[in-house]
Amino acid sequence: MSSAPSERRLRLRAVLNAQSTAILVACLLLAAVGAGLVYTTHVDPGTTEESRTVSSLTVESEYRHSATVTEPNAVFATGSVLDGRDTYFTRIAPELDVDVATTYAASSAENVTVEVGSTLVIRNVGEEDTVYWRETEPLASETVSDVAPGETVNASFALNSTAIDGRVASIEEQLGASPGETETFVTTEVAVDGRVGGVATASTQTLDMTLTHGGDTYSVSEPGVQSDTTSRTERVTVERSYGALRSFGGPLLLLVGLLGAGGIGYATREFDLALAPAEREYLSYRDDRSEFDEWITTFRLPESVHDRPTAEAGSLRDLVDFAIDNDTGVVEDPRTGAFHAVSGEFVYTYRPPAPNGASDDAGAEPDGAAIGRDGDLAAADSVSTDDSRSAGDSDSVDGSGSTDDSDSTDDSDSTDEPSSAADDGSGSVMNWVRDAISSEASDSSEASDSSEASAEQDRDDRRDPDDWDAGDDSH
């Protein structure tokens, strides 16, 4: 029987033969794309413009606040410093000490001046940010020149929460009303100016600290460290760069495309990819065998079935269609590979084709090659046995050394008649076998000899002992 690798090779040949041009074009396109990617990635990647930071100035500012305990109490010692708190006690530490700390960072800087100015703002604000009244008071102003990167500039001032609360009460008393909400906060303006990276650069920032009076306490809310960066950039032209996918994918596509195009070109030039008619018929049979697998059973038919007249089907599909129409089954003989359907007094048979190269083993028997083993070939073996025995009897001599002509004549007559009947009944079958073996021999003489020897051995092994008895009875 044929093997799966042989069938796969035939199907591969069929695909390559039918689609060789399309496969070649696809491989060439793949190689062209790969070549383009290789060229634009590794040979001439081109250039692009991008922004590059030439210089930068980063300014950081923050409020640092604390309050000193001035009144004796049971918890805090007089003179101790309460710092970094959100809430302070008005009675024991009414005065808040505040420092505005400013520093900057730059790769190179010169003639840098830092200015810090803080102002106390008291205002009454209504809905939609309507300001009913506002009062400001300068607190501190500090200007420092030639400040180095990383150096800290401090501007200090003090806020007396009791005095601020009294001032608000006085204003509201003078106005006679307070339509909105009174706010108290400190706003600080920081300006840094100088040459950074050889270029004149300026940076400004504003930060606020809010004071909320709650009677015996006051709360401080400040933004923490506030950082602002001023950068100067310029457009520069740089070589374009690509990721790993394109860098390695391009050469891989080129290699695969070239190998594929070369392989398909070599295959079409050096090998005959076109399938022979027998090979196409074989693949058609294998397709039918797979499609109608559920309609086919495998077992050996009895010898008596092969005594019926035989009709040959043109394809396995025709045999299955006939079996379905006649409500019968299709049987595959595991010894011969032939398919049979029994209906009425006839046996309908399909013998699978066996194209050259359908089997990997040169000496293996192809599908359908061992035809007639269950019927016709058994009859041919019986006739061959009778002929050989008849010939042996005709050559026998008596005790005086003379040949027994009468026996020879009788035996010759008795064997001629069945021999002729056998030739009429199985001659076409044996001719088919000889043609199949001869076809195999055209490709490989050694494979043909092995196949013929295997067929002869099978006939000897399958000879029915009843045929030998019949031959002996004839004598």
From TrEMBL:
Residues 218-228 have a biased composition (Polar residues). Transmembrane segments: none annotated. Residues 213-232, 352-475 are annotated as: Disordered. Pfam families: DUF5305. It comes from the Archaea. Residues 456-465 have a biased composition (Basic and acidic residues). InterPro entries: DUF5305 (IPR035185). Residues 393-403, 438-454 have a biased composition (Low complexity). Residues 404-416, 466-475 have a biased composition (Acidic residues). This is DUF5305 domain-containing protein. It comes from Halorubrum tebenquichense DSM 14210.
